[in-house]
Every structure is written in C-alpha cells, then in structure tokens.
Amino acid sequence: MLDDFKSSQENFYHEVVQFGLHQKFSHAYLIETKDYADTDNLVLAFAKFLYCPYHYTDSSHCEDCNSCHLIDLANNSDIITISPDGSWIKKDQIQEIKEKFMTKSLDNHVRIYIIKEADKLNKQAANALLKFLEEPDNQLIGILVCRNRYQVLETLQSRCQLLSLLGEQTLIQIEDENFFHDFIDILETKREAAIAFLPSFFSNEYLNKEDWLSIFQQLEVIYEQSLRKSVLSNFSSPYDDLIKQVLSYNSTKDCLRKIEVIHSYIQRLAFNLNLSLMLDSFVIDFSGGEYSYV
Asked: Where are the beta strands (DSSP E) in the chain?
C-alpha cells in the first residue's frame, strides 16, 4: 500500500495523498524513478490509490477490497500495463490502449494505463501517445514511468504532472574528486584517442568488474547532476567543481547522450566482459562514435 513508501519516498507520498484529500487529479503522471529499487511496487501502490474511490480520504478501507486483489493479480480490466517490445515501445501498443478503453467502463470507474520505460517510446508511438494526451478523458489516467525525465520528449513531459522519486543514485558518494577530474578531462579532451591514454592512467591499479561498476555509477551521478544544472540554474550540488568541468565541454543535449552511454555500460557490467575491450568500446561510444563490441 502507499503507506509503505511514507518514509523512503516522503515527498512523493505527501504530494500524492494531497491529490486524494483535495480530489484533484491529473489525466497523466510522469514518475521519474532515478533508479529507485522498489519502483514496480510503488507504481502499483499509486495505481491502487488512483483506482480506489476513497483516495486516502478514508484509508481504513485501503487494500481491503476485491479491486486491489485483482490489481495484484494483474487481472483488473480497468488497468493495462505496457513495456518495451524488444528495444522500443511501438505505435501498435499505444493503439492497444486506445482500443481497450474506447468504450466507457460498465461501472463508470476510472481506467488506468501504465507505460513502463516511457523513454523507450519510438517516434511513432510517442506521436500517437501525444495525440492521446491532447484529448484527455476524465475517466482515463496515464502513469508514465521513466528513469530520467530528460530522456522523455518535452512535449510529453509538458502534458504530465511530474512526480520525482528519491533515487538510489543520491546515496552514491564521489570517492575521489581529483580522480574524476582527471578521468573526465581525458575523456572529454582526447575523445577517441583516450583509448591510448587511459591504460597508463590506470596503470597503478588492476580494475575488476566491481571497480568499473563503482566508477561508472559515480560518473553517472556527475553527468546527471551536470544535466540538472544545465536546465536549472539554481540547482546546487556538493560536486560543483566537477559539474563546472563537465558543462565547460557539454551542452544539455551532450550530457543527456553521455548519461545514456554511461548507463548502458552499467547494465553491460552485469555480464562477463573483456574489461579492456569494454573500456575501448565505452570511450568510442562516449565520444560519439560507433563500436561493434557487445
């Protein structure tokens, strides 16, 4: 239930409860997860909250009804969830939502569609969803879920109410700012040629998969905070010097692309890789080139 997130996602919890107390709901929400580990359960609890006729105005009823049990079993016909089909969410998946909810609910109940990894909408799907959002239905509520809101089209963002979670990445501390200053300098100034410079940069240490995972996670924090600084002038961070360094080389668009590259290598590190080739691949992808490895 929603109370399970009262401590871990305090801002989200209190904002959502206010929706119910004032009976003011948007036709669409964009939940920015920031890699929050329990996202699926939080989204499920939010869907239950929206579907419940009490909306926490009488929380004694919470989860004590057949509707919640059907949602848990993914067997509620008023709620549909879609995820990427392969690498992308496709137009026909959006059409599926439209067709399913074309008629009114028999009991005049709200219907909810959940789009996981909304940053993976391909162009045709995004355009189809945009038309959907431009003609809101009072009985229909969308929940778009993404890791980083800046990876979702601005036109889609503007039609949703943002709910931003406290992500796991905020717990990651930059262990050695001098190391990252030098590492970023090589990546940004040497570009593809960094392949030749980085072996000597790391020559005094043997880096295993766990080391690289930590480096990429910290690098991702730096570039994500740089991205936020580039669009929010009053954004503050304990890593201002590193952020200034990153923004001296990158536009907002550059930061976004490089965050996607860094995150893709965090995911790849879950598999057995040749770490030397992995670093070469990362350098080329990060600099904007193409590499065929993994």
From this structure: 28-32, 79-82, 111-115, 140-146, 161-164
Give the separation between CA 111 and CA 3, rounded to whole angstroms. Answer: 22
Least confident piece of the model among 12-16, 28-32, 246-250: 12-16
Q: Which residues contact 168 (CB under 8 A, 6 or more apart)?
A: 34, 35, 36, 37
Same domain, 102 and 227: no
DSSP state, 102?
S
Name the CA dihedral angle for 245, 207, 289, 175, rounded to a multiple of 10 degrees.
-20
Is residue 156 located within the same domain as residue 78?
yes
Count of domains forming the chain: 2
Question: Cβ of 68: how many Cβ atoms within 10 Å?
Answer: 20
- In this prediction, residues 214-231 reach a mean pLDDT of 90
pLDDT in tens, 106-153: 666 788 999 999 999 998 999 999 988 888 777 889 999 998 887 888
Distance between alpha carbon 98 and the CA centroid of its chain, in Å?
24
Gap between the Cα atoms of 101 and 291, Å rounded? 43
Please give the DSSP secondary-structure letter assigned to residue 166. -
DSSP assignment, residue 233?
T
